[in-house]
Design a protein that fits this description.
With about 200 residues, the chain is mainly beta. The protein has one domain. It is built from 2 helices and 14 strands.
Length: about 200
């Protein structure tokens, strides 16, 4: 059965410069010994196997070798605690790649699935900054605009679940610890832009 999800994406990774994994198609090493990332998806509209997904929020937690194309990723999924049992099952099926679409492309890289946890998730915006909070974790980023107030973006991205265009949104502060994956600091890599998935 066809499915679709759309909304807004907010990423924070542990790199201290714009994430090299994104623009190199996972061929360049992260700026740290491991690549750790939190990818938050605020779902504004969508349907998975007849389940309405509007209003759900999830965070994909990733821990991988510095060269992400080496595979062996540890991946966990955090879903907001307001999601129903049917919505949790639907998001698990989507993110696992079972239903095809963009997440399925990451399947060969997965080494260890850490499971699914539910906890409060909020995404707020204030003065152009967004803050993603889940459990005891939080990160704050700001989309980077040029002199014409246009979002500065990376284009032509081959391998990223949020799509071929990523809007730069550097993270000013970050403290992330969930599903056994921990990282944080100031001035870290971040992205934010609309996303649209279907399968």
């Amino acid at each position: 059965m066809a499915w679709n999800l759309s909304g807004t994406f907010y990423e924070n990774c542990s790199c201290t410069a714009t994430c090299p994994c994104t623009w190199s198609n996972l061929q360049y090493a992260a700026t740290n010994d491991r690549c750790n990332a939190a990818l938050a998806f605020s779902i504004e509209a969508g349907d998975v196997n007849g389940t309405d997904m509007a209003g759900c929020t999830m965070v994909l937690m990733v821990d991988s070798p510095p060269v992400m194309s080496d595979g062996g990723w540890n991946v966990g999924l955090v879903i907001d605690d307001g999601a129903s049992e049917a919505q949790v099952a639907a998001l698990g099926a989507v993110v696992s790649g079972e239903l095809g679409g963009p997440p399925a492309a990451l399947g060969p890289l997965l080494g260890n699935f850490l499971g699914i946890e539910q906890m409060p998730i909020s995404i707020t915006s204030d003065g152009g900054e967004h803050t993603v909070t889940f459990g005891e974790s939080a990160y704050t980023g700001r989309p980077h605009l040029n002199g014409s107030d246009e979002l500065v973006s990376l284009t032509g991205i081959d391998t990223h679940p949020a799509g071929p265009v990523l809007g730069l949104a550097p993270v000013s502060t970050s403290s992330v610890s969930a599903m056994g994956i921990s990282f944080g600091g100031e001035g870290l890599s971040g992205f934010s832009n609309p996303f649209s998935w279907e399968g």
